[in-house]
Amino acid sequence: MENAFTTTEDFLQDDSFLRYCMGVSEEDTRRWEDWIRENPDRQAPFEQARKIFDAINGQQGQLHAAVGQFRLLLREHVANTTAQAPAALTPPARGQQRRLYWWAAAAVLVLVAATGWYQYSRYREQHLATARPIHDVQPGTTKAMLTLADGTAVPLDSTGASQFEEKDGTRINKGQGSLVYDHSGNTTEKILFNTLATPRGGEYQITLPDGSRVWLNAASSLRFPTRFAGNDRTVYLNGEAYFEISPNAQQPFHVQLSDNQQITVLGTSFNVMNYADENNITTTLVTGKVMVSRPDGQQAVLAPSQQAVITKGQNRITVSDADVDKTIAWKTGMFEFEDDDLPSIMRTIARWYDVEVVYNGNIPDQHYSGSIRKTSTLSQALRILQTAGIQYSITNKTITIKSF
């Protein structure tokens, strides 16, 4: 990367920097985080540019005098850039779908720098403290509750490191946002079970006694033994998790889901979504091979980049190609939506920000696509939805979606 970034304007006129601010590109995120570490003397204009980005991104709905010109220029910019956009950002061809151009704030800032609105945005940034919403919600964090076999509840967060033991001698090492189970000190034959649970607005990571790693999404729980004995390894999941399983052909790994549905694994990585408020139970294979089973004996074996969907109340397993990047984006700090309806999107947001969602009027029968960085505050995330015509209000921890 060139080092010719000395002023705020230099950053705001760079497409890669704008993608970094919007959080739509992992490559650009890593690129700029590395760059600022290597160029600490540019910290001031770098941070100023980010603040101005947030000011424009959050206040664009209030640019009353320029709103007409803004929409015209934005449409032109979108028309010129859609053909060059990555495949994941290309809107599917369907009549009722409306694209959530959440990355379109990049176009706004390019126009700001090009037309002189930049001076206006600096004024807005200086007065941002008084313009911020009274009601806002911070994003979720790394937190969970570990329940030991005797019922002892141990709160967990992302700070500090410590070690403690289960009754059977299993050592549990707490790091920054993760647990590692070491059963080498386990001296009993009795199998003890622990449960790791994340609240709404939380996520956590765990390394199981066999070395398998699990990432728990918000509002999820994983019940597991302190050591794996016998002919298999079985854990119990509610919610959503990403698994990286240590291979062991002699001891298959099983994930038990609701309604006695089961996933059988030898050694692989995959994602499972099994939320009570979702209509589908979805298993997406990243690497290796898994078998999804129903209580009635129906089975489906997945190849990499395939997805098995079981619709609750229906007696079949549907297998199709999967968008793996979208499915596991939550694990890497993003929300990725592709052709999703508004209630589905809002359920995801509600779990991460620990809020309730109500609808004032009819729910629009439309589908949307786009990306949001999970570190955004709730108001930042929702204001970006306004580019798709979605109006909302926040009162305490309730989002009201207004009728269209």
From TrEMBL:
<dbReference type="InterPro" id="IPR006860">
    <property type="entry name" value="FecR"/>
</dbReference>
<feature type="domain" description="Protein FecR C-terminal">
    <location>
        <begin position="335"/>
        <end position="401"/>
    </location>
</feature>
<keyword id="KW-1133">Transmembrane helix</keyword>
<feature type="domain" description="FecR protein">
    <location>
        <begin position="195"/>
        <end position="290"/>
    </location>
</feature>
<keyword id="KW-0472">Membrane</keyword>
<dbReference type="GO" id="GO:0016989">
    <property type="term" value="F:sigma factor antagonist activity"/>
</dbReference>
<dbReference type="InterPro" id="IPR032508">
    <property type="entry name" value="FecR_C"/>
</dbReference>
<keyword id="KW-0812">Transmembrane</keyword>
<dbReference type="Pfam" id="PF16344">
    <property type="entry name" value="FecR_C"/>
</dbReference>
<feature type="transmembrane region" description="Helical">
    <location>
        <begin position="100"/>
        <end position="120"/>
    </location>
</feature>
<protein>
    <submittedName>
        <fullName>FecR family protein</fullName>
    </submittedName>
</protein>
<dbReference type="Pfam" id="PF04773">
    <property type="entry name" value="FecR"/>
</dbReference>
<dbReference type="InterPro" id="IPR012373">
    <property type="entry name" value="Ferrdict_sens_TM"/>
</dbReference>
